[in-house]
Amino acid sequence: MQRRTFLHTGALALAAGTTGAFAQSSWPAKPIKLIVPFPPGGGTDATSRLIAEKFTVLNQWTVIVENRPGAAGNIGLDAVAKAQPDGYTIGMGQASNLSINPALYAKMPFDPLKDFTPIVEIAVQPVVLVVRADSPFRTLADFIKAAKAKPGEYSIAHAGNGTVGHLAGEMLTRRAGIQVLQVPYKGAGPAMNELLGGQVQLYFGNSVSVMSQMTGGKVRALAVSSAQRLPVIGQVPTVAEQGYPGFDATTWLGLVGPAGLPAEVVARVNKEVGAMLARKDVQDKLAFEGNIPVTGTPQQFAAFIKAEHTKWGNLIREANIKLE
Question: For position 289, what pLDDT does the model report?
Answer without folding.
Answer: 85
